[in-house]
Specification:
Blueprint lengths: L11 H7 L7 E3 L10 E6 L2 E7 L5 E4 L7 H29 L2
Parallel strand pairs: 1-2
Antiparallel strand pairs: 2-3, 3-4
């Protein structure tokens, strides 16, 4: 893979796994599937966006930012996914501290 194609939807699953985020619930390029608790990246009428599905699989939080192209959407998606991983880790650590 060259530097030019590392910011595409096709490369995104590999990048997610390389960053150790593959255990998180996400959908790539599919704005219609109603998977619960998923972070989604998809192209819509207004451009590329990211959003979160709730426990029923409905859109809960839609990004304020729409991205003009696939490359910038992929980067934004990775930042959000990393943030979700951080929050999960901090919650887990806080729970572990309470149990001590």
């Amino acid at each position: 893979m060259t530097d030019g194609d590392c910011n595409t939807l096709a490369s995104l699953p590999n990048r997610v796994n390389q960053l150790g985020l593959g255990h998180l619930n996400f959908l790539i390029g599919d704005g219609e599937t109603q998977r619960p608790y998923a972070l989604v990246i998809a192209q819509g009428e207004d451009g590329w966006s990211t959003f979160v599905r709730d426990e029923r699989g409905l859109t809960r939080v839609k990004s304020v930012r729409t991205y003009p192209d696939e490359r910038s959407a992929v980067e934004g998606f990775l930042v959000l996914l990393d943030g979700i991983a951080l929050v999960k880790r901090l919650r887990s650590e806080a729970t572990a501290e309470k149990d001590v």
